[in-house]
Amino acid sequence: MTEPRQLRTYAYVNRPYETVRAALHQRPLEILKQATTSAGARASSLAASLRVGVGGIQVGVGLSVQVKAVRDEDGVAGLGPVTRVQLGWEAANAASFFPVMSAELSAWPLSASETQLEIEGTYRPPLGAVGTAIDAVVGHRIADASVHTLLEDIVEQLRRELPSGG
Question: The whole model's pTM is what?
Fold first, then answer.
């Protein structure tokens, strides 16, 4: 079995942490659905399509995304409170050809009007040695860009729907 690959990206949203926290607790799946180019959602998962340009080529795959848990924690190293949303996603079709991602979306206050968001996760390249070779050449860049795009879309969705509080 191949070793898991790690991904991490972060962004900022100019909205108060408490409003971001409330949205993540009340409707995390809806936020993910609206932040992606999804057509439909079921109770515990949603179908989404992430499209990432790599080397001028558009790569897209339908995804099944699950929200596994949402929890609050006391901050570490003086960060203050942290809200964590455990996520997972995999290809909706031909899943054995695509990696399965396990990730966590975290949010914490930076100031009274700004919140930091971060997605950190792992995936295993599919297809054994062939998949590991593809991942080394281009797959990791596609996975990294997909996670970055998803986080940017989440930030834009939060900006559109949450009051600025200022």
Answer: 0.77
